[in-house]
Amino acid sequence: MEQPKSAAGDPYDKSFIQPSMEKFEDFDQVFEKEESLSTSLVSNGRVDFHGKVADKKKTGGWKASPFIIVNEVAERLAFFAVAVNMVAYLVFEMRQSLPRAATHVTDWIGAAYVLTLVGAFLADAYLGRFKTIIIFSCVYAVGMVLLTLSASIDSLRPPPCTTRPCNKATDGQTAFLYGALGLIALGTGGIKPCVSSFGADQFDEADSREVQTKYAFFNWFFFAINIGALLGITVLVYIQDNKGWTWGFGIPTMAMICSIAILAAGVPYYRYQKPMGSPFTRFIQVAVASARNHFNGVEVVREADLYEVKTNQSDILGARKLPHSTQYRFLDKAAVVTDPEGSPKSRWMLCTVTQVEEFKCFIRVLPVWTSTIALSISFSQLSTFFVSQANKTNRHLGPNFEIPAGSVPVFAAINALILVPIYEKWMVPTIRRRTGHPRGLTSLQRIGVGLFVSIFALGSAALVEKKRRDHLNPLSKMSVFWLLPQFFLIGTAEVFTYVGQLEFFYDEATDGTRSISSAMFLSEIGIGSWLSTALVKIIDSATGGEEQGWLRHDLNMGKLDYFYWILTAINGVNFLVYLWVARRYNGRHGPSTSVRDGDEN
């Protein structure tokens, strides 16, 4: 007799059919398997590439993160290979003046980081983080290809200079180069705000084990950034100086193209966050609705008067509901139900509690964002005046090798590569035992440590510069290793502040604003770069210009140490302002995110 068959599609059918009997699974075993299946699914709404709720056993975590990190290494390698030596390329190949070339590079770096706001908007509103990274990586690669062509095709550069005055670049040659740099800046703007958030998306916040792994990811992500910077500053700068610009730009171009293929290879392992519409539109809706109700005399009497949808999820696609908070109560007026019998109105007239709270979260982090911009002014000195100092020192290692001046910032990158593993493996467990906090320090405490260290970084730079200028000897220059303290300290400040900002802005963001939140702190780098340029121009005009002022073309005749002391004072005042802001900060998870409390909710 033919044995009966189980129903098609039964997920628990093992087809254990024996010739003489059937072996059925016990009900308890089935229940355990169903429970195991449910607990292996993520709780934050992330989906796999089929569009189904992601399974922790098959997606995310360290199964997916390496593909993302490789893309970041390649992007940073290419960016630093271009940024560190672009001034030299503009001066020696395109025949621009040094001040003009330096200004163009500073403005380009600033634009690249401010454009992260555009990339973040597109990711959160329309494309999602993965598609944004892929698309803008391709834009980046096209820019690198055009830059390589500019360096390798003679008609795209001025002819060799045989007689003075040298021929400058034509408008067409300059436009081609600036077009390439523009695409690289645009690519950076699309990749940078999404890649760290996309990496963090691979970890479920409701799983205690994955939460700890997520913060380890932020540390190793920063480690990867410095690996890319290290290779760009050292190996590729050396190749550019000794093998030519074509090789110097061509190698990172190939690395960028390969990284796109590697990122695409991880598609089956990623967890994806669906785009949720424009957060800025929702912010404006809250502002308009609250203002309209305020002028109409509406008051918030009870929390029960505030409108929220009745579904389990919020009406923001893919976003979880947010609980009501008592901060910024004026904005609650946007969610007051003025007509209980009527149907829900347009979001320009009535917003949900979740939509209001999303806007509150955005406003809440603005003081922290503002009070950390000053540090980016100090960071911008790594590629400008710190390198200018190095040019005036003895950089020889033995009789046959001289460290390129553009490679001296490698000291800061090496410090970061050493400090990140030490912090993650030894310092965090030690501090955790003292504070009781899972990460040792809260995000705001970590940022504060970085701001504090930056004061000593610029003070050290001022003291060393004063010593160098007071002991000028043409036959025996000061060793470049006297600059180690300032590079070490600025690198330490970056390790603490940068990773702390990654953690803070991701944690305080809502489901619909993760990329925008990441872009906010990245835009600090661009704004800091522009502020540094403005500060230099102000000091230059106030102290006598390039011929008589503090910041002369010849550093030996200037007063660069005075400029460093001004930055030291700015960092000191900024640290005090930051302490005031951070001590009063009350995050969306409660006061545990402040500098006051080491316990997490």
Automatic annotation (TrEMBL):
Coiled coil: none annotated. Keywords: Membrane, Transmembrane, Transmembrane helix, Transport. The chain crosses the membrane at residues 73-92, 108-127, 134-153, 173-195, 216-239, 245-270, 401-423, 443-464, 480-499, 562-581. It comes from the Eukaryota. It is found in: Membrane. It is a multi-pass membrane protein. The keyword Translocase does not apply. Pfam families: PTR2. The keyword Transport applies. PANTHER family: OLIGOPEPTIDE TRANSPORTER-RELATED (PTHR11654). Belongs to the major facilitator superfamily. Proton-dependent oligopeptide transporter (POT/PTR) (TC 2.A.17) family. This is Protein NRT1/ PTR FAMILY 8.2-like. It comes from Prunus mume (Japanese apricot). The lineage of its organism: Eukaryota, Viridiplantae, Streptophyta, Embryophyta, Tracheophyta. The gene is LOC103321396.
